[in-house]
Design a protein that fits this description.
The protein is an alpha/beta fold and 209 residues long. Helix content is 30%, strand content 21%. The chain contains five helices and seven strands; from the N terminus they run ββαββαβαβαβα. The radius of gyration is 16 Å and the shape is globular.
Length: 209
């Protein structure tokens, strides 16, 4: 895995990702081809939609809900230049029918193992909560299946400043990574959003970068 800079970047002016919603699908076979794709995964209330909106600088691109589990399909966004971003259903607790949740694992696994053009998986971990057993299992599964991934800690602003250094070390250790391999962000406060935009552009060009 490549190293992701851990420094904080709060610069407000930066080109947003030109994300545009394309479609929702239940099967990887229903998706259009892509030159390069980044997939976003994480717990149901880790803040995926808020982060996608921040990356695009658009408030309602991805629907934000106080109810975890509203993302129930494979949601595809055009990222410009023949590249795409995939928003996957969250894992863990979700306020969705049991029969719906039961379809998520095979749908997500089928996508991750069968998507042509998938370059990197962005795994979001709640900075306030730290890596859960499901987060760790997801990271282990991705590594076992030789899928490139990067870890981003969301909700940086929810961790008190006095506890951030300790939490960075604990979170990285829990993910089996070095501290510098985890980028901390806050969608609401725009912390490191500039940095993450640049990283995503680079990963879609060179997943080993």
């Amino acid at each position: 895995m490549g190293t992701v800079a851990g420094r904080l970047v709060t610069v407000a002016a930066a080109p947003p990702l030109p994300l545009r919603f394309v479609m929702s699908a239940r099967r990887v076979g229903d998706l259009p081809p892509t030159n390069a794709e980044l997939a976003v995964v994480g717990r149901s209330n880790v803040g995926k939609s808020s982060l996608i909106n921040a990356l695009a600088n658009r408030n309602q691109l991805a629907k934000v809900s106080k109810t975890p589990g509203r993302t129930q399909l494979l949601n595809l966004f055009d990222a410009g230049g023949g590249t795409t971003l995939m928003d996957l259903p969250g894992y863990g607790f979700a306020n969705a029918p049991k029969q719906v949740r039961a379809t998520w694992a095979p749908m997500i696994e089928g996508y991750l193992l069968g998507r042509e053009g998938l370059r990197v998986v962005l795994v979001l971990v709640d900075a306030e909560v730290g890596p859960t057993p499901l987060d760790v299992t997801t990271l282990e599964w991705l590594e076992a299946n030789d899928l490139a991934f990067r870890v981003v800690a969301t909700k940086h602003d929810k961790v008190r400043p006095a506890k951030r250094d300790k939490r960075r070390r604990e979170l990285a250790e829990g993910c089996g990574l070095a501290v510098g391999d985890v980028l901390w962000v806050s969608a609401s406060k725009q912390v490191n959003i500039v940095e993450l935009r640049g990283r995503i552009r680079a990963w879609l060009t060179d997943p080993g970068g």
